[in-house]
# Entry
Amino acid sequence: MAVSRSRTAVYARRRKRRMAQHTHDLSDEQWAALAAEWQGCAYCGASDRPLQRDCVQPISRGGRYTLANVVPACGSCNASKSNDEVTSWLRRKQLDERAFLLRHREIGVALALRFPAPDAASD
Ligand SMILES: [Zn+2]
# Structure
């Protein structure tokens, strides 16, 4: 298989590699803890459907799959939010932006204590 050396291809490969690493930042244990804390979709509260890992700050905006940046979201919220900035999306959807931010912060603090970062300097 020929390896493309074009700039676009190089960037695409770098992004793929970065994404592959980031996908593994959140452990299954951390995900289970997040789901248990939120007890439903972090945005609309739905608890009667499967939840997906949503990056509060989208990957396209520098977000990563980390304990601090992932929340459980129902398929509908996840698809609707897509790459939008979270607070403007919440406002547009007339969801409770303030309640989400407070809860996100509380849960973030609680879980950061339970799962101390192994390497705070890593990026
Ligand atoms: Zn939802």
Remarks:
- The chain has one domain: 26-114.
- The longest strand covers residues 51-55.
